[in-house]
Write a structure and sequence with these properties.
The complex is a heterodimer of chains A (309) and B (341). Chain A is built from ten helices and 13 strands. By secondary structure, chain A is of the alpha+beta class. In chain A, 39% of the residues are buried. Classes of the chains: A alpha+beta (309), B alpha+beta (341).
Chain lengths: 309, 341
Amino acid sequence: MSNVHERLRRLLFLVPYVSKHPGVTVEALAKALNISREDLLEELDLLTCVGRPPFNPDDYIDIYVANDRVYVDLDQRLFAPPRLTAGEAAALAAAAELLRPSTGDALQSALTKLEGIIPPAARERFRDMFRKIDASADAPPALGPLTRAILERLEVTFGYASPGRPPEPRRVRPYELLSHRGQWYLQGFCHTRQDARLFRLDRMEELAVTPTAFQPPPDARADVPNPARGTSEASVRVRFTPTAAPYVKERFGQDARPLADGGVEVRVAGDSERWLTQWVLSFGGEAEVLEPASARAAVARAVHASIGS
Amino acid sequence: MDRTERILDLVALLLDAREPISWAELREHFPADYGGSDDAAERKFERDKAELVELGFPLSYVQGDDERRDGYLVDRDVYYLPEADLTKEELAVLYAAGSAALASGAFPGRDDLAHALRKIGFFAGESLPTPRVRMELGTGQEGQEKEVSARLEQLWDACSAHKWVQLTYGSPRKDGVTERRVDPYGLALRRGVWTLVGYCHLRQGLRTFHVHRIRELKVNTARPRTPDFEVPADFSLDAHVAYFPWQYRFHAPMEVTLQLTGPQASRAGSLFPGAALEPVAEGVARARFPVTFLDGLVRFVLSLGADCRVEGPPEARARLEQMAANILAKHAPVEGPRVSA
């Protein structure tokens, strides 16, 4: 996409935005347009030269900054932004698919309304472009109530099944939802454990939003779960054959240690036996746990269980 | 005059016009821009017009009659963004998903998406929710976000404009890289990984490419507004991108039957979407579905534990036993700590 095109789109939005929000601060406007303060001031300079022929004084856009706030007196009919283009609507509709399973009827009705405000001539192109991104994710139904609980700052309760143990009741302050490698996690403060925890959504049962309100900390960002960055004392050494090595290298990068036979070795956290055994089994014999012996035994147990021996 | 400025002037002029504006008048209004030879001036205006159309500006040329002269006119009713009357919930869904996709670092059509969010937020005032949803999308490993994001943006443009791309691709299944020309049909996201589906001229057929494995990418820049290819009407991304490992199309389809018990029986539908399910007894379900990559299924079945069994066909059972034996052999108890090679 050319710079001219991007700039034009931005400017066709900028004038109506100021028209609708007279006195918006330079900072807020720059943020709304996702550009720097300097770039914004440059754009405002350009706009003062824009108008319609015959270019009498009243024919120019009259946009100015006073006390660090932006005002427009003559918008030259740019009082509302242009409609969504086919590409804009298609990108938005595709992004919305990411949360589809958890959004109930709201998503479908939103998409119908969205299609309704695209110019009729662009609708076919919208459908064509929308077909070109398929971002339908396997978002679990729990995403809906959890999003609501995070927004409304309400505590939640659920049963959480740790590997090898029956579900245990938890009461949690939900801070953030995180999708990593197709797996959804909730980050929050667990009253039961009195600690910040990351929970996998697919292990939750009987999720309920309580009426108990809480105040989230200002910066509650979850660390992305990464088995390769596990604690050293709990680490498990896993060796991969040359066949599996390229895939492991792709995932672990520098953390995959090359071996003489063309295979690789990695260290991963061993705090979740279920995760570890599933992961090793998913390589179907191309992966071997080297140590500790307890983890080797866990893999062997899992295989026996699977074949019923 | 700066091109951006000229196009904005044209927008202001046309939005204000009640009568069609002829080409001769436009030349009078912009003597410095549309001056010079007729040919050069017309070419310049054609480029501006194309830009206006890409912006979604509803410009049309009307043939005059007794009452009206020939010229360019814009349909103002079509130009301005109307209120979509989204409910609070609808706005929250679109906004949360759109913002999360933007923040994720890798989503095709990022510029389009950012503009769309601004526009749907235009009438919403201050009531927009702050999304607390984060997605890590599209990358094979950490630190690749920028590269994948740039590739996705190029591919999105190429998909939309139907322009072929030249790519250097590194597959983990083979050493080295291959150079290919591909007609990009679409992009799909599966389990956090972006896949390009398109017609590969090297292999003479439809192929899928993981975007994070594309090393270099160039979009055909010749005749940017003329499409290089047509996407077949019956093309569907879903038919070419696997959701699950057993759907990778390495072999001819084979129907596999599984028996699920205990907690897995009630989850059968979500574990194997699309499978034909039948209850066998209380708490026991049978699932039947086509498999095109048996090893992918066998590995998954092994990881599900005792509550998932392969009933048939015999070659599927045999493969499971063989793979299990292989894993067990590798994990036989050993004396003392092992040293890797």
